[in-house]
Amino acid sequence: xxxxxxxxxxxxxxxxxxxxxxxxxxxxxxxxxxxxxxxxxxxxxxxxxxxxxxxxxxxxxxxxxxxxxxxxxxxxxxxxxxxxxxxxxxxxxxxxxxxxxxxxxxxxxxxxxxxxxxxxxxxxxxxxxxxxxxxxxxxxxxxxxxxxxxxxxxxxxxxxxxxxxxxxxxxxxxxxxxxxxxxxxxxxxxxxxxxxxxxxxxxxxxxxxxxxxxxxxxxxxxxxxxxxxxxxxxxxxxxxxxxxxxxxxxxxxxxxxxxxxxxxxxxxxxxxxxxxxxxxxxxxxxxxxxxxxxxxxxxxxxxxxxxxxxxxxxxxxxxxxxxx
Length: 324
Known about the structure:
This protein is mainly α. It contains 14 helices and no strands. The radius of gyration is 28 Å and the shape is elongated.
C-alpha cells in the first residue's frame, strides 16, 4: 500500500499481542541497524523457513510485497490443513477416552455394587454375570499395575519420539497405518506440492527449495527423503527419479513431477497436484471420521448394554426365572 517496511513493522507492533511485542520490537531494531528483513526474521523460531526463504527472494528481486502475500496464503492453507486433520481426529480421540473412562468407572464402581447385591440374594449367578464380575475383580486387583504399565508405555513413546532415529522409524511406520497412513501421505504431498510450487515460482532454485522443504516436514521420514533427493540432485540426478526412491508421497506426484521436468512447467504441475491431492485429503478425512464415529458408538453402546444385560439376567435368575 506504499507504506515503508519500517513503518509497517511499527504499525504491526502497535497492534501485536503482549506476548509478541518483544519480537516485533527486536525486528524493528534490527532493520533500523541495517539488517535485512529476512536475516532479522531468521533470528526468531516462530517464523518458518518457508516464509524466510520467500522474503529473502523478495528482497533480492524487489517484489517483497508479492512474496509476502504468497507466504500469507501458504500459512493460511497450512493452518486450514492442520485444522482439518485435528478436527477429524478430535471426535474419535474424545470418544476413545470416554470409552476408556467408562470402562474403568463401570468395572471399579458399578459392577462391584452389583456383585454385593447379587451376593446378598444368595442365588448362583449366570455365566454372563459371573464373567463380568471376574473381569471387574481382576481389574480392581491389578488396577495399580495396569496404571503403571500404561504410564510407562506413554512415557516410553514420548522418549522414543523425541529421539531422531526412533522418531524416523515411528514416522515411517505411521505412513503404513490403514487409512491414517494415507492421510499422512496425502498431507505431506499437499505440503510439498503447494510450498515447492510457490518457492519455484518465486525464483528459488530447486536445490535451495529442497533445503527449505526438508525443514517444513513434520514427518521425519518424509524430511529424510527430501534430504536424500537434495543430495542426489547435487550429484546431477533428476528430481522425479530421486524422489521415487522410497518415497512416502502419493505415486501420482512423482509421475507428474517427471512430466513437469521434461516440459519445464514443474511449478504449474505442482500447483495442479496441490488442488488434486487436497481434494483427496478432504475425502480421506471425511472417510476416517465416517468410519470411526459409528464404530466407537457401537463399542460404547455394546459395553453399556453388556453390563445392563448381565445385571438383568442375574436379577431375573435371582427372582426365580431361567437365566437363559
